[in-house]
Amino acid sequence: MSYQKKKFPERGLPKDVIESALHDARHKDARWQEGKTFSMVFYPGEDVARVQEEAYRAFFFENGLNPSAFPSLRKFETEVVAMSADLMHGGSEVVGNMTSGGTESILCAVKAAKEWAFQENQNIQPEMIVPLSAHPAFDKAANYFGIKIHHTPLRDDYRADVEEIKKLINKNTILLVGSAPAYPHGVIDPLEELSTLALEKNILLHVDACVGGYILPFVEKLGYPVPKFDFRLPGVTSLSMDLHKYGYVTKGASVVLYINSDLRKMQYFVYTGWPGGIYASPSIAGSRSGGVLAAAWATLNYLGAEGYLKMAKAVMDAVQKIKDRVNTIEGIRIISNPEASVLAFTSHRHDIFNIGDELSLKGWHIDRQQNPASLHLTVSYGNTPYIDAFLDDLEAAVRKMKRPNIHKFTSRATIRLVRTASKILSPRAVSRITSRFGKRKKKGFPKRTAAMYGMMAALPNKGDIKQIVLNMLDGLNKMD
Question: What is the dihedral of CA 250, 252, 258, 264, to 10 degrees?
């Protein structure tokens, strides 16, 4: 981040000034307390939050880097992993570790797969195959660890196409990937087919259950049809599941599981030549918050299966209400047939990003998606009391799209302009123009983004889109 406008303080500020500044700083933040944030925050309710806060505070300064120094933290982590493995129908040999989040869990699993492959063949040029809907953490892992990544197209129902995956398998393939569910559309990949394929080809298979790991088992218990996605499938060799999503644990907490300890060892890092002593860490991170480990243990034990089942029922009741109501709104539809609590809706008639802008102006925080253009909902327990209000605002936004308005005109004009410029100007000229987009020229963030998303979708050169996003990311990391 850029800090040139803020100097290191000469003297400390009084406690009440700090508290006031903290309170004031959040007034523009997403209003998750009102159930208006459909991702990032998974609020379990005040009673669970109090248990977490007490557990976190009790181990606020402890460090999970060295379990021999804090056997309490070792107890918390190993028991959380064991409970999670039990939830995933893991046998006695299934092991794992806690990490800081889904991205780190995925990085660990990919590193383990690479090391496993090198153990078998030192000359391998590692490759992995992931569906287009798989989380970008796999691309990050490929970039970090020097692995070639293949993205395969999706079926018409937006699930992984196993036939396309088969075509790409070769002697260098070290890992196949499936999601339960895939984040963009909330659907579970055909993991049983992937499991059979992985066994047939003797390739590792990772299931990304970061979103679904702590809700799908309870959705299944409620009687909803949920295909097998865990260690009941014999081809699954590793699995990631996020505690800080539907486990309702404080950020950042996730679990990565392996079929046995031999594979888990491949994620470890050990260095014995350092003058400071032998350095060993089980995951990507070094120091780890003892508070998070304690809060995770406390949450699972406080809620138990009964508590999670109750929360899952509230969530699924809300999801069903969304599906029923959306089906009555002319011009929008839910994509595919999501099995659980993650879904996306699109429109063949209206500019879905303008609908998103209208909802944002009402305080709702909703992700925008592409291919197809859609709005994304991750429905969690904290959203459930506010679903009727959201659906009322959604209907109002769609009604507004049926009437002429300047924002709809601006968005369409921008898209037409970009498409025309792409046809008549050279690629270099278009790149020079688009390189200016996304840069922050004033304080705050734009309230309407439909025109920008439409423009990015119309650009033929994906490199130009990346430059716009880089500009935006750089702007977000600058001080106002």
Answer: -130
Strand pairing category for 95-99 and 148-152: unpaired
* Cα separation values, 196 from 9, 169, 199, 258, 415, Å: 60, 14, 5, 18, 45
Q: Mean per-residue pLDDT for 375-392?
A: 97
Name which of 371, 369, 376 is nearest 338 in CA terms. 376
- In the chain, the N- to C-terminal Cα span, in Å, equals 11
CB 390, CB 379: distance < 8 Å: no
Q: Which two tokens stand for residue 348?
A: 């063949």
The whole-chain average pLDDT of the chain stands at: 88
pLDDT for position 44? 94
Tally of residues, the chain: 480
User: Alpha-carbon distance 209 to 211, whole Å?
Assistant: 5
pLDDT surpassing 70 at residue 479: no
Task: Give backbone dihedrals phi and psi of 154, rounded to 5 degrees, phi first.
Answer: -100, 160
User: What is the Cα gyration radius of the chain?
Assistant: 24
Q: Give the pLDDT mean for 414-436.
A: 57
- For residues 346 and 413, give the distance between their C-alpha atoms in angstroms, rounded to a whole number: 21
Question: pLDDT tens-digit profile of 134-169?
Answer: 999 999 999 999 999 999 999 999 999 999 999 999
Determine the 3-state secondary structure of 99 from DSSP. strand
Task: Tell me the C-alpha distance between 436 and 422, whole Å.
Answer: 16
pTM, whole model, 2 decimals?
A: 0.85
